[in-house]
């Protein structure tokens, strides 16, 4: 299934063809992948080995963490690894930051993010969406809204939070782009994300949001590039395309079961975070409902 809109880049829903990408001189990068540096059990070493076998790159976007990238660079610098992290805002959205250099990412993390992590380190930080995009403006990086209409009952996507009036629609103009194929989303919600990106003339990315080794590379962001700088520049100028497919319901269930133990030790703080995030939303919903009844 292909989005037929008069705007570039292309978004294609089918399995990536690794050999074809290589033959055409293109590079495909899974731009949203987690390792055991956050809530996955996948070792960085194993992810790099599989990426090399498939001839692809990856961005290790662990939750509120950057150490996976630096481990990857120490192990095998020959695999294209885009410096990245997924920062969870206290008001809902998950925000992917992609940096042109590991040095910039490390400076940003140590100065702005590390001391804002909560007692449940993979969940919401103490930074709001506006805080994160404002911080990003001081660094050479791309600000991408992950799974814009995710995730299930939780408000972890920018588009979803705007729809529910938790965030002002103007906030989208502060983003570089949107993730339009997320392996953890449904086709309907990915298409909705692509439509939102087209409407706002934002760049597009895609990634598996993978937590299992077998997820890696099932969604790729593709362009003609040789290094991180070239690759991110291609995204900025929308000279790329996204190809991949979503996980099946069974695959999503397997992944959820696999990562659950990572949160057990943080059960109490996780519950507090979910309560603090959702109490204002319930209040907002109640006030909105009552105003309509009048």
TrEMBL record:
InterPro entries: PHP_domain, Pol/histidinol_Pase-like. It comes from Methanolacinia petrolearia (strain DSM 11571 / OCM 486 / SEBR 4847) (Methanoplanus petrolearius). It holds the Pfam family PHP_C. It comes from the Archaea. SUPFAM superfamilies: PHP domain-like. GO terms for molecular function: 5'-3' DNA exonuclease activity; 5'-3' RNA exonuclease activity. This is PHP domain protein.
